[in-house]
Amino acid sequence: LIDHKLSWKQHIQHAKKRIKPMIYAIGKARMFISENIGWKLYYAHIYPHLTYMMGAAADVYVKSLYVLRKRVIKFIKKLPPLHPFEDLFNINVLPIKNCIYIN
């Protein structure tokens, strides 16, 4: 999904399109599922889209995925949407760029 200008915009848009329905589902079900199940859903359905072929993508595009990732982590941890994300740095989830370099 790279266009003729070698832009990652289409690929990022496709990844967001695939991730958003799963974030919505986790958000709706978060009061009924455990945190463990939430993390399993994250790693099964969201994490692959965040890391697939993102090594060369510009930070401008990855930032929009980072926002979605923060949202789903707050859903999994059952936190309000405006909760500061800095408090969650001890949750042992790698930042997107680090995940990309490991894969």
From TrEMBL:
The UniProt keyword set, sorted, is:
Membrane, Transmembrane, Transmembrane helix
Lineage summary: Eukaryota, Metazoa, Ecdysozoa, Arthropoda, Hexapoda
Put simply, this protein is called Putative membrane protein
So where does this one cross the membrane? 49-68
The superkingdom of the source organism is Eukaryota
